[in-house]
Amino acid sequence: MCLVHILDDDEELSESLAWLLGSVGIRSERHHDAREFLRSYDRGRPACLVLDVRMPELSGFDVQHLLNETGAPLPVIFVSAHGDIRMSVRAMQNGAVDFLEKPYDPQHMLDVVQTARRTARDCFARRAEQRVLRSRLDELTAREQEVLRLSVEGVSNKQIASRLGISTKTVDVHRARIREKTGAESIPVLVRDVLRLERP
């Protein structure tokens, strides 16, 4: 289940949005204080954020910046009663899913929220897979990690054997153990997953 956080100091509008989401079975939590939200936000569950631009103390852009700085997997939908193209461009360049002007069309908001929830679920699942892969890679011996690193660099078995001063048969044994420990379908598939893991 993907939760929708609503961070807006306008209690009437946030209550109205919560009701709209609830009418189609989408669970939401309302927040009126940015610092309180940042303290309470749980990264351990998939979620997205409907975020007002203008708020006291921390603006919506401040919140987005802090979330981005910490790598939070939280798709953001900006809303504003005073939005302009410059604001919209800034929000999107920093990774926002969308930027909606208040008052927004209810159906359009629901469509955007559903897109953000799908993005959140995909991101959450991808991060879970990455955590599993990292833990499995940590179980490899130093030599197995060397063999894998060279494989990722595109070095052939024969060249790996030469560089490490071992036989190609030993390289094959290491590769088989790497596949077994990581649960990889094949070394090429594992190399692809490792490259994705290293991608910023």
Structure description:
By secondary structure, the protein is an alpha/beta fold. The chain folds into 2 domains: 3-128, Response regulator (Rossmann fold); 139-198, Arc Repressor Mutant, subunit A. The protein has 9 helices and 5 strands, in the order βαβαβαβαβααααα. It has helices at residues 11-23, 34-40, 60-69, 85-93, 106-138, 142-152, 157-164, 168-182, 187-198; strands spanning 3-7, 28-31, 47-52, 76-80, 98-101. It has a 5-stranded parallel sheet with strand order 2-1-3-4-5, sandwiched between helices. Helix 3 links the parallel strand 3 (47-52) and strand 4. Helix 6 crosses helix 8 (168-182) and helix 7 packs across helix 8. The mean pLDDT is 91.
| Count of the domains | 2
- Measured by DSSP, the beta-strand proportion falls in 5-15%
Helix content: 55-70%
Strands, count? 5
Q: State the CATH class of the largest domain.
A: Alpha Beta
Helix-strand blueprint:
Blueprint: E1 3-7, H1 11-23, E2 28-31, H2 34-40, E3 47-52, H3 60-69, E4 76-80, H4 85-93, E5 98-101, H5 106-138, H6 142-152, H7 157-164, H8 168-182, H9 187-198
Parallel strand pairs: 1-2, 1-3, 3-4, 4-5
Helix pairs in contact: 6-8, 7-8
